[in-house]
Specification:
Elements (H helix, E strand, L loop, with lengths): L5 E7 L3 E6 L6 E2 L13 E2 L9 H12 L7 E4 L11 H11 L5 E5 L7 H6 L5 E4 L6 H8 L7 H14 L3 E7 L8 H14 L3 E5 L15 H11 L2 E3 L14 H13 L4 H8 L3 H13 L3 E6 L2 E6 L4
Parallel strand pairs: 2-5, 3-4, 5-6, 6-7, 7-8, 8-9, 9-10
Antiparallel strand pairs: 1-2, 11-12
Helix pairs in contact: 1-2, 8-10, 9-10
The protein binds iron/sulfur cluster.
Length: 312
């Protein structure tokens, strides 16, 4: 069966075997982050609606889950901000009622938790991973480029409100952009915000595949560790399980991608066309190939291409 809203399961370093559920069309988000690995936001909005119908997503889930696949998580993620879809609560309710054995995860930018209705709709989700890259308005605007009426202080207040009633695990993710949020002032504000929100865990990451803006660079491991120590209790995302050691790692898809790139440099779009897989799934394998130095990035005016890395 061909799925429109489900993808994977993808081998996730943090979540193990994770079935992706994409609730918005590419690329619909409340933010347009400079580091976004999906590319530029084409629909920047805070309007909540059924961007894709909840009934259609539930139908696909019904078909997929009746085989009782081995999954660590069913994860709302993909082509933008999942909480923009006003049907997210109904979809989570369906899974928790029909298949209570599966754990749910939400990857979110956290901007809509200012709304009570959104907080209510995610309360049955087992793990929520909101990002928090900045705690000052200037830095938030520089990194996350929000929709016009979204403000940093309100986003932090929304996270505080969520934490008050939410009984699952909240893991804040901070993406470090050298030159923007790695300075003492911003980190102090982030640390204060974390103390107010009181998440269960904090993870720190940086660029590991090309972002929307070509000038964004990765922070080095020493700097990341320094920041983790300063924030206290923070973990580095890279410390998690190697992707190809995870059961859902698809070696034939991995080989198909390598084989395709060996013939000619490809963009993510080319690879989606050749493999018929979801963008988020392709991105995971690209990340794995980059980390193993099998491929490299070639940025051309026509787009970001991946090619086999020449042996030196
Ligand atoms: S919030 Fe996530 S999906 Fe949206 S622009 Fe930022 S990184 Fe991309």
């Amino acid at each position: 069966m061909k799925y429109s809203y489900l993808f994977g399961p993808v081998p996730s370093r943090r979540l193990g075997i994770s079935l992706g559920v994409d609730l918005v069309p590419f690329k619909t988000c409340t933010l347009d982050c400079i580091y976004c690995e999906c590319g530029e936001t084409t629909l920047l909005s805070n309007e909540r609606k059924e961007y894709v119908p909840a009934t259609a997503v539930i139908k696909e889930l019904e078909g997929y889950l009746q085989g009782l696949p081995d999954l660590d998580y069913i994860t709302f993620s993909g082509s933008g901000e999942p909480t923009l879809n006003s049907g997210i609560g109904d979809i989570a309710d369906y899974i928790k009622t029909a298949y209570p054995q599966y754990k749910l995860c939400l990857l979110t930018n956290g901007t809509l938790f200012t709304e009570k209705e959104v907080r209510e709709s995610v309360k049955q989700i087992d793990m929520i991973i909101p990002s928090l890259d900045a705690a000052s308005e200037a830095c938030f605007k520089a990194i996350n480029r929000p929709y016009k009426n979204i403000h940093c202080g309100e986003v932090i207040s929304g996270l505080i409100e969520l934490r008050k009633d939410y009984r699952g695990t909240m893991m804040i993710e901070i993406f470090i952009v050298p030159g923007l949020n790695d300075n003492e002032d911003e980190l102090r504000l982030i640390k204060n915000a974390l103390a107010d929100v009181n998440p269960d865990r904090v993870q720190i990451g940086t660029l590991d595949r090309p972002g929307t803006e070509t000038w964004v660079e990765a922070a080095d491991d020493v700097k990341l560790q320094e920041i983790a120590n300063y924030l206290g209790q923070a973990e580095l995302i890279g410390e998690f399980m190697e992707r190809d050691k995870i059961a859902s790692f698809n070696s034939s898809l991995f080989e198909q991608i390598v084989e395709t790139i060996s013939r000619r440099p490809c963009t993510v779009k080319d690879l989606i066309q050749v493999t018929g897989r979801h963008q988020a799934e392709i991105e995971k394998y690209i990340q794995n190939l980059l980390s193993k130095n099998i491929i490299e990035v070639d940025r051309l005016a026509r787009g970001t291409f991946f090619k086999i890395k020449k042996k030196s």
